[in-house]
Amino acid sequence: MSKILILGGGFAGIYTAKALNKSKFRGLDIELISDNNYFIFQPLLPEVASGTINSSDAVTPIRQMLKNIKFRNAEVSGIDFQKKEVVIQQGFKKSTHRISYDQLVIALGQVSNLDIVPGLKDHAFKMRSLQDAHDLRNHIIGCLELADVTADNKLRNRLLNFVVVGGGFSGVETVGEIKEMIDRLIPYYGSLVKGDVKFHIIEFANQLLPDMNKNIGNYTLRKFIKNNIEVNLNTSLEQVTQYKVFLSGKKTIDTHTVISTIGSSVSTLIKNLKLKLDYGKIVTNGCFEVEGYENVWAVGDAALIPNKDKSQMLFKQKKIAYAPPNAQFAVRQGKLLASNIINKISNKALEEFRYSSKGSLASLGSRDGVGKIYFLTVKGLLAWLIWRAFYLSFIPSFATKIRVLFGWMVEYLVPRNAVMTRSLKSETVSFQNFKKGDIVFEEGMIADGFYIVLEGSFKNTFKNTSDGKIFTKFYKKNDHFGARVILSGNRRTGTIKALEESKVVKIDSNTFKILNEHFIPLKKYFSTYVEENFRNLNK
To answer: What is the DSSP string of 289-325?
Structure first.
């Protein structure tokens, strides 16, 4: 019996397992490990964020997809190549287990890497998980709700400015879906009109959809301009703060919403394995074998896989064609890898990967699309319909296909829901960056967190509640602010502004209250601190 262990529940891992199981080759013990118990079809995340489909419709339970295959919901924490064991953390208490293998498939994909731009990780929304889509939707609707009632024009402008970073497939589809959602919700907000809302897309290349030809990029550009989406080409993102993005050419955009579709890398786990990496991916040969390791394979987004079809050139500077990171290539890789594993066990020759893309499509929102199928360029409604059919075909479960199709039909007939639901997981601790003049919070706001100054300085301006006398207080590195109002249960009584480029760590209010209540030294400290520092204000 040969134990085949597959790490990762994305396209590559799932289709490797399915193909191995379908082969009916005797003597295989197949097990797949994933940190989620569901497969997520990431291209549908913009539609989840926009409310086109429900979040549950973008996922398929892995156990239903992989009948007769062992599945383990766990986190991979290490690999011992010498002992041929994978170390996992499993269960509510994250207990450690070791699982042996004869053949190991690494299909762990990639993770977000927003450290490429200062402040991006701290202030941008991602589009990689259900949680990301869920959080973005809640945030956007929250912006509309506040913009509808605020009398502060500057705040209103920030709330209705939406910035998408990246003009590739994910960025284009995200901005298209979000704009369509907002356009359809605006009529329900009495003080808002479509012209109040501004959309911006930032792309470093000289065209949108840079992986497509110039004709397609220009068509997308014209459509976006027609739909009042500001397109910034040949533009790099320099910095992101809580209320502003800084672009090359000294351009800035005031905004509360930055959505990043750029920045990805292999996980920390893979980096720590000391595998040979190139272009941030595991180096393999054309048969998916990891260089320098026996019976170890890598597929999907985590792997740099040579493609014998030279027309699929990705890195032209090396004159080598590599498989691009998309679903249609991952599916083909999984099927061929299954065959190569069986051939390896049977002492037969391995086959090198060769595949030519059948085309690429992108939705532009509002029943408009663009793409290329073989050598045919398609645009408009036809492209949009083909795009939906194409995505539907790649959903690896018939039940999920039906749910998505039904969701699309319902969305066409009825209005979008403008409902905010509580996030599945809150950010209890986060870092925030501020430029000189940025406001951390203003008088009258709900006390949402406790702040510790890591860099820079801040000024706090507040009033005595009895006589209206103005007080000021300054904070520098290692100082803190925000505790008094959290502990008193009131709204903010002052306005805090950054005096220079600064950075803080923020602890959300509920977490801070728990710490203060149960950690007695902290509770004693803050009772004394509030009394000594705000005595005049309380008087």
So the answer is: BBTT-TTEEE-GGGEE-B-S-GGG-SBGGGTB-B--S
> CA 250, CA 236: separation in Å to the nearest integer?
10
Amino acid at 125: F
Confidence at residue 157, expressed as pLDDT on a 0 to 100 scale: 94
Enter the DSSP assignment of 491: B
C-alpha triplet 332, 337, 339: angle, nearest 5°: 105
* Cβ-based neighbours of 406, under 8 Å, separated by 6 or more: none
pLDDT digit string, tens, across residues 407-448: 777 666 665 565 555 544 456 888 888 989 998 988 877 788
Please name the helix (run of DSSP H) or strand (run of DSSP E) that holds residue 488, with its range, or none. helix 483-488
pLDDT tens readout for residues 123-163 = 999 988 888 998 999 999 999 999 999 998 999 999 999 99
pLDDT in tens, 187-223: 999 999 989 999 999 999 999 998 888 999 999 999 9
The structural domains of the chain, ordered by start, are 2-41+58-110+266-345 (3.50.50.60), 114-261+359-394 (3.50.50.100), 429-538 (2.60.120.10)
What tokens does 535 get? Answer: 């005595």
Q: What's residue 426's pLDDT?
A: 53
* 279 φ/ψ sector (left φ>0, alpha ψ -120 to 50, else beta): left
Residue 70 to residues 67, 78, 241, 478: CA-CA distances in angstroms? 8, 20, 46, 51
148 near 189, Cβ under 8 Å? yes
Rounded Cα gap, residues 461 and 68, in angstroms: 65
Q: How many CB atoms lie within 10 A of CB 26?
A: 7
Place of tokens 């803050």: 526
State the Cα–Cα distance between residues 119 and 104, nearest whole angstrom. Answer: 37
What's this model's pTM, rounded to 2 decimal places? 0.80
- Measured distance CA(325)–CA(463) in Å, rounded: 56
